[in-house]
Amino acid sequence: MGKTKKMLKDYSPGEIIALFKDLNEPSYRADQITNWIYKKKTLNIDEMTNLPVYLREKLKKEVNINMLTIKKKLVSPKDGTVKYLFETLDGELLECVVMKQYYGNTVCISSQIGCGLGCLFCASTKGGLVRNLTPGEMLDQVILAEKYLGEEEKINNIVVMGMGEPLYNLNNLIRFLQTANDAKGLGISLRNITVSTAGIASKITEFAEEKMPVTLAVSLHAPDDQTRSEIMPINKKYPLKKVLDSCETYIDRVGRQITFEYILLAGINDSNEKAYKLAHLIQGRLCHVNLIPANQVDHVGMEGVRRPDKKRINDFFEILRKNNISVSIRKEQGEDIEGACGQLRRRHL
Ligand code: SAH
User: Fold this and answer.
1) Which candidate in 155, 157, 196, 221 could, as Cys together with 161 as Cys, close a disulfide (CB 3.0–4.6 Å)?
2) How far apart are CA 200 and CA 207, in angstroms?
3) Which residue's alpha carbon is nearest to atom 5 within ligand 1?
């Protein structure tokens, strides 16, 4: 057994310089490899032709630059949405989706394998939480998604809305965001990154102190504690008042509007009464509401998860709009390849 290799993408560009110092290599060599892995998205040390052969050989023994490998790529004939299946070094599978929009390409990445939250309507949680993803595994989703997208294609936006609860993996999330944003890393503006949380109030407050200008999306999904607890067990620990208070702290510290996500579930949270309650609850806050018509997931125990009809969705939307709430309805992409929200938990084994 050789000694374990260092996972290079778990290190920040600054830490790679320190690592190279330990290997008695100057900092410009560190910057060269950083450039290969993050800018050129190279997956093979032998392709790093401006590094001397002795150094490439040394690096192959000391470090690993590939956190994920691609197993499958599916392209939606309907809207061009791309779905990838990636495998981690320990054999876990994860899916990643790229949506094509007029303002660029957006990749939806996961922050954990599985999820421990148990939301009623979500397939990602059905097998429970397996483990957190490392910063390098989050970066590699973006890197591989761009690499295999096509010639000249770039990833412009990132949404952390795949499997898992990102704020329950806060340290790794912050390290991921730093390297994603770093000029020597992926160089993506934090304003082009959205982090979606089920509303872990204590972690929202903690994250606010980082003052990172990402868009925070909070999965609200119900305007009262009773309904919310029925569909999101985490509400018992962090009820609505705590969640909304932490959102105020976030707005205050970071100076950014919050997005409230609201899944529309037929017969559960989609009545006119719920719409009025929601409008009342968030009236006057610096926020935008994104309505997500539920995706039906083919899974035992999820037969009750149904999308309301068009009229119901529209009536709900209109009540919010007429009450001066900034609101939109999420456009569905990639349903034909099972790439839509809440579906990212398929067994491919
Ligand atoms: N744990 C985080 C991020 C992952 S889920 C969170 O809860 O926000 C990303 C979004 O997809 C959340 O708003 C979640 O509620 C939503 N979602 C989950 N299952 C869904 C489904 N079946 N249909 C529509 N949206 C779903």
Assistant:
1) 196
2) 10
3) 161
The pLDDT tens digits of the residues spanning 298-337 come to 778 888 899 999 999 999 999 999 999 999 999 877 777 7
Helix (H, G, I), strand (E, B) or coil at 177: helix
Q: Is residue 56 part of a domain?
A: yes
**What is the biggest distance separating any 2 CA atoms in the chain, rounded to whole angstroms?**
70
Pick the catalytic residue from 95, 137, 146, 165: 95
Give percent above pLDDT 70 in the chain.
97
Domain shared by 156 and 59, yes or no: no
Q: Is residue 226 part of a domain?
A: yes
Residue 181 shares a structural domain with residue 52: no
Q: What is the mean pLDDT of residues 33-43?
A: 97
The pLDDT of 44-54, averaged and rounded, is 96
3-class SS at 99?
Answer: strand
Tokens standing for residue 199: 């509303």
Give alpha helix (H) positions in 105-147: 135-147
Nearest atom of ligand 1 to the alpha carbon of 342: 19
Residue with tokens 């018509």: 293
Residue bearing tokens 């412009």? 156
**Could you read off the pLDDT of 188-220 as tens digits, one per residue?**
999 999 999 999 999 999 999 999 999 999 999
Q: How far apart are CA 72 and CA 346, in angstroms?
A: 13
Same domain, 193 and 155: yes
- Domain containing 300: what range? 68-337
Hey, what are 172's tokens?
């790794």
- CA of 198, closest atom in ligand 1: 7
Q: Give the Å distance between the CA of 77 and the centre of ligand 1.
A: 24
Q: What is the pTM of this model?
A: 0.96
341 catalytic residue (yes or no): yes
The residue whose CA has the least distance to atom 7 of ligand 1 is 198
125 and 86 co-located in one domain: yes
How many residues make up the chain in this entry?
349
Distances (CA, A) of 271 to 125, 146, 322: 26, 41, 16
Q: How many domains does the chain have?
A: 2
